[in-house]
Design a protein that fits this description.
- The protein is of the alpha/beta class.
- It folds into two domains: 127 residues, no CATH class; 71 residues.
- The protein is 51% helix and 11% strand.
- The chain contains five helices and five strands.
- A five-stranded mixed beta sheet has the order 1-2-5-4-3, with helices on one face.
- Helix 2 runs antiparallel to helix 3 and helix 2 runs antiparallel to helix 4.
- The protein is rod-shaped.
- It starts with a strand and ends in a 9-residue tail after the last helix.
């Protein structure tokens, strides 16, 4: 995926959006509003703000499952640093890649619990049936023996409730969440700028300093950074 920005058109920056993409649009005053303010991670590893995540994921869930997605961020300021669209794209993609992996870890853990629950349930069911048959034989001709056998059989099948719930119902919503995150982790991302604020508004926004520019500044400083002993 290539990041494109027209030299003559400074109102947009970021990825080109294919015609068949279904566009998700968000509107913010500053890019930093998209990210969790208390997350101390570097820009590309920062989590999305929970409300921004909920908005993007909720919109994507309402769209056809196979439709390619794209994100357009309508920003209430002029263009700032030349690489801010790339930084934004990398941060959002990394967040949803991590989200997809987290969902798959949940799925693996759920299947592990399901397998353990299945083993326990089968043992409990077999024991209940065997005990019920034993009591029915021991109390042959008695109504109590039949009641005991039926009760134990019902209890044995109830012990199978948890594994059946896991393997029939619980796993597929988590798998769908992981697949949705995979789609969001590769979607084109584009910024549309407005001129509502002055041309230096980007200086107060995220990222305040370009990671590329910051690295070059540090490399250009002469001499060691450690204090002489």
């Amino acid at each position: 995926m290539t990041s494109t920005s027209s030299a003559d058109d400074k109102s947009v920056a970021g990825d080109s959006i294919p015609p068949k993409c279904v566009v998700i649009e968000v509107h913010v005053g500053e890019l930093k509003q998209l990210f969790d303010a208390i997350d101390p991670s570097p820009f590309r590893d920062r989590d999305l703000d929970p409300k921004a995540e909920e908005f993007i994921v909720g919109w994507a869930k309402d769209l056809p499952r196979e439709a390619p997605l794209a994100l357009v961020v309508n920003l209430d300021r002029e263009a700032g640093l030349p690489d801010e669209a790339v930084v934004l794209r990398d941060a959002i993609h990394e967040f949803f890649r991590h989200r997809a992996e987290t969902q798959r870890q949940r799925l693996r853990e759920l299947f592990r619990v399901g397998r353990t629950s299945l083993m326990i349930g089968l043992v409990a069911l077999a024991a209940a049936i065997a005990l019920g048959d034993f009591l029915a034989t021991l109390l042959r001709g008695s109504r109590i023996g039949e009641i005991a056998r039926e009760s134990l059989t019902i209890g044995g099948w109830v012990s199978m409730w948890r594994p059946l719930e896991v393997f029939l119902y619980d796993w597929w919503p988590i798998r769908n969440e992981a697949r949705l995150s995979d789609r969001l982790a590769v979607m084109p991302i584009r910024i549309k700028y407005a001129n509502a604020i002055g041309p230096d508004a980007w200086r107060a926004d995220w990222p305040a300093v370009s990671p590329i520019g910051q690295r070059r500044t540090i490399e250009a400083q002469p001499g060691p950074l450690n204090r002489a002993s």
